Amino acid sequence: MVTPRGSDPFDASDKDRPNPDQQQYPQYQNPQYQNPQYQNPQYQNPQYPNPQYPNLQYGAGYGTPAPTNTLAIVSLVLAVLGLTFLPLIASICAVVCGHISRGQIKRTGEGGSGFATAGLIVGYVSIALFVIVVAGIILFAVAAANTSSY
Known about the structure:
Helix content is 45%, strand content 0%. The chain is mainly α and 150 residues long.
């Protein structure tokens, strides 16, 4: 079966012809009101001029931070252990490591002075608390042994 020309909706040969079934509207053009060309103004703020940065060479600027002394960290860790698990042994090791690390930090310029100082302080406090507790136990034992039960 052959369909007449124009009745096939998929026929592309007459795509430029207007469809007689559709109402055609005239194109509205008003030359009196045309869009003005957009002009991009250059905003300038003379009150705040652009800052002038110095011409830095490659590699200038912030340096890398100094590495932290390992013995300073060990001193702080041992001091905390001296307060909790190993009262006298870890505290003495913390004080020794703290003094050694402070000497290394002064000599080499490494970081970690705060860790070493904290390890020393906590280590000395832990040793003092250990001595006070042991002295209290000894005094309590001596006082208990000297009481008479007459």
